[in-house]
Amino acid sequence: MAEILAVEVVDLVKAYGPNRAVNGLSFTVPAGSVTALLGPNGAGKTTTVEICEGFRRADAGTVLVLGRDPVADAAALRPRVGVMLQSGGMYPGARAGEMLRLVAAHHAHPLDPDTLLERVGLDGTAARTPFRRLSGGQKQLLSLAMAIVGRPELVFLDEPTAGLDVRARHATWDLVEELRAAGVTVVLTTHAMDEAERLADQVVIVDRGAVVAAGTPAELTRGGADGELRFRAPSGLDLDQLLAALPDGSRASERAGGHYIVRGTVDPAFLAAVTAWCAGNGVLPTDLRVEQRSLEDVFVDLTGSELAP
């Protein structure tokens, strides 16, 4: 049986003058799944999402959202798709509760606004507060509530936990998981690796306007090196000398603060070779541990960039 797709993007191109923000990008989003789009700033993910939402037109390629063209069929898609707007889509003087009730009134069978406000922690005083006076985190929570109050089949969430405290962040994760359990498809952009690893059924990594990797978090972290040996030591170790003492195909890198990662077939002989090299060069490695690659490691390897905090 063929997989049902909520979003299908094929060979998407979008240019701004001579610069191609999106350059032949392709990916699909299965219905009822959570897909996380990751990429450095300027990678093209925001433009891609805005095209899927119908806010921008593609220069070339095909985009289908729930089987329809997001621009030509915008009116038909509007009640079926939730979009997490940023502050530009809000009325600064309107109270939080009023805004959510206004959005709910445009849908046939919305969630109860008061219950949803309580669910996201915006009941009581917050519900009566004008949008411009809400904190950054409260604005995020209101935007999330507005995206889902209409019971959408598909929802686009842009950095849904940015600016939230730990409690609100975890509550938002629980809400996304509830959406998936209810059969709602979620496409989210995030800079939080733990968020992507916990929530996403699939991760799409975008760089320079194209997809550089896609798969489940487990698939992406299994790829490449067999394992990692991590340790801390003084900055500036001669990694070429270290690699000369290790089996062919090994790799080594230094992150900020003298944090070293050595990748290869990590077995007792590999560990002994690394520690012997350190001993021979008067280096005392600390916090030495064997790990599997993290999603952040995969991201850095593929894009050469650290995700912004």
Write up this protein.
- It comes from Frankia nepalensis.
- InterPro entries: AAA+_ATPase (IPR003593), ABC_transporter-like_ATP-bd (IPR003439), ABC_transporter-like_CS (IPR017871), ABC_transporter_ATP-binding (IPR050763), P-loop_NTPase (IPR027417).
- Its main location: membrane.
- The structure is a single chain.
- This protein is of the alpha/beta class.
- The chain has 2 domains: 5-221, P-loop containing nucleotide triphosphate hydrolases (Rossmann fold, 3-Layer(aba) Sandwich), CATH 3.40.50.300; 225-292, 2-Layer Sandwich (Alpha-Beta Plaits), CATH 3.30.70.
- Helices cover 32% and strands 27% of the residues.
- It has helices at residues 45-52, 74-77, 96-104, 113-119, 136-148, 166-181, 193-199, 217-222, 239-244, 268-280, 295-303, and strands at residues 5-16, 19-30, 34-38, 60-65, 81-83, 154-158, 185-189, 202-207, 210-215, 227-232, 251-255, 259-264, 286-291.
- A 6-stranded mixed sheet has the order 5-6-7-3-8-9, with helices on both faces.
- Strand 1 and strand 2 form a beta hairpin.
- The protein is elongated, with a radius of gyration of 23 Å.
- The two termini are 41 Å apart.
